[in-house]
Design a protein that fits this description.
Residues 670-690, 697-710, 728-739, 748-760 have a biased composition (Basic and acidic residues). With 760 residues, this protein is an alpha+beta fold. 31% of the residues lie in helices and 17% in strands.
Length: 760
Amino acid sequence: YPEIVKENELFERYYRELGIVPAGEWPAFMAALREPLPATLRITGYRSHAKEILHCLKEKYFKELQDLEVDGQKVEMPQSLSWYPEELAWHTNLSRKILRKSPQLEKFHQFLVSETECGNISRQEAVSMIPPLLLNIEPHHKILDMCAAPGSKTAQLIEMLHADMNAPFPKGFVIANDVDNKRCYLLVHQAKRLNSPCIMVVNHDASSIPNLQIDVDGRKEVLFYDRILCDVPCSGDGTMRKNIDVWKKWTTQNSLQLHGLQLRIATRGVEQLAEGGRMVYSTCSLNPIENEAVIMSLLEKSQGALELADVSSELPGLKRMPGLTKWKVMLKDGQWFEDWKDVPSNRQTQIRPTMFPVKDEEKLKAMNLERCLRILPHHQNTGGFFVAVLIKKSPMPWNKRQPKVHQKLPQRTGDAEVTAANSDNGAECITEEPALAENEEPKKMQELQNSDTEQSKKEGVCGPPPSKKMKLFGFKEDPFVFLPEDDPLFLPIQKFYALDPSFPKMNLLTRTQEGKKRQLYMVSKELRNVLLNNSEKMKVINTGIKVWSRNSDGEQFGCAFRLAQEGIYTLYPFIHARIINVCIEDVKILLTQENPFLSKFSSETQKKVKDMAMGSIVLKYDPDPEKPEDLQCPIVLCGWQGKTSLRAFVPKNERLHYLRMMGVEVFKAKRKEEESETKTEEEVQHRLAQIEEGMDVEDKEHDLVTKMEAEIGEESPHSPVDSSAMEVENKTENLDQSRKNGNTHVSQESKDTDMSNVKD
């Protein structure tokens, strides 16, 4: 392909005229845009393993990069981002391309790929980490991510919910939405790496995302979110350093076309925000038409219900520019307009009044637009970005109770719904019915609801939405079926694992109404409430983490379900039986040998196993503070005790992760791997056939995600990783690994869908 010339005269003319770059810094700004974006990574602060990973990175991998030269370029030591808390985010001068292609960096790249796959590291652009930090999330917050795919910011939100590692079920949750059905599966894959029971992925147009209801002490109430992330679709001219296509495609037309959609999404967001709640609006664009113009229009029509938060003291160390208060509008032919009244009638569909700054100086001053943040690429070697933090002080004017007879649809919201407020508790309630007396309920709606959903509620079934319009796009999802109170399935599980009486069995669900239940998933109590009360209006793509898998061998030992590694950290606090405490040497044996004999383990472990029945077990490692050279974070593994052996059921990347943390060398160069390949074609085919035979729906979806990541151009966490370490030949393990790697649950219908036309 011919090399793209990094020049765009219209771009330079536009931003020079608007003055978004301080005087004298223009050459540095343009020079930064022409340089490739440095690679950045974030260590997930969700697990106690974060400190161990940080230690491993600093002491081992970063030191190996010292004095290294790649393509004549000296590799600089990675630096932590000064404004990101606890040294959990790092950047290096290596571009993504160099990282992927250079043989000298193969070991470091494999580490990144493997740790990304098990959710311990997220390769994310530095500026993209800012919005979740400014939301100030607490574990009890109800959070909506309006335009969430591909999911790196969603992952940050989930981490913040789980800040307290001792609480398996935070009271808050994240509902992550995206309009693109196919990208929703990418979002599921990202979120699933964090193994949280508090995330739900839904598929709606963000500008008309429905109001959800929840049950509060037997009463139906509208769900309002404490925090909303509104990272809207944008022209993306802040991403020129990594998306070099923007150089030749950039025109002002993109911003003019997106402004209306951005305003509608932001409006819908603030409608669903609780009073006192925070919404962060962000774009990866530098253009005021997509940024300040949207915020200004929102503030103007809120009539004082919203205010811009002053976040100048937050994230010290982050260099930022204040928001603009003056700007002009330019057409793609280079024609400028300073006022709406100057726009000729034939251009009034392209240019709208909301794109211009307010003329009233006093009103403009009261908006405090300078509280917005604009990140410029040359200040800290990042991409370009815009962030505004809004706080809701009172209900939106069009959400306040209207007189019963004269109620009309709001004209300026772009929303087809009318909203009323419940004066009992100050909560807003949006409905298409006229406002009724305080304790009255719209009878029509209730009758409809009762007839449609009463039966399914009794059965704890949250099926796909019945309305035809919801089925026009995307895959048909299997229902979410909660386990009934008296389900005979649960009793042997409870007895076998000696589950604590406090175990929330009501939160267990399956994805099948008929036939044998193969997998059991778990959600938090709050998400169960959301699911049960909104199945008729919400298209849920995925929720819950897998906690048990059916294993036919287990039935003879008293329990047909074995523990699943992805849900073990959630389940562990409730399990009182079948726990074996192991030392660090035992852990190494479990993770490096496929089916080790009991005689290989320490005498303490052998004694504990001796009196225990065969079947699924929990293997727990507790660090010894008196041995600081050993791994200093606890590990919980799922395992299986056979007659003469003990094995761990852990996905490959997670095995590699634990071994790295214990100082075991797991790297094998690809070429050596290829040379030592001795399997015949027949053996490979036979092995694949075995895996395919036992593959469930989840594995098919994993293939979709892998294929899709390659087409979207995101950095795929499925790049080749050392396949010679800990390969297990046993068929059961093959099946287990294929299921584990899938890491998601979706419907049968999605498995064969062609995803070749996915757009970024």
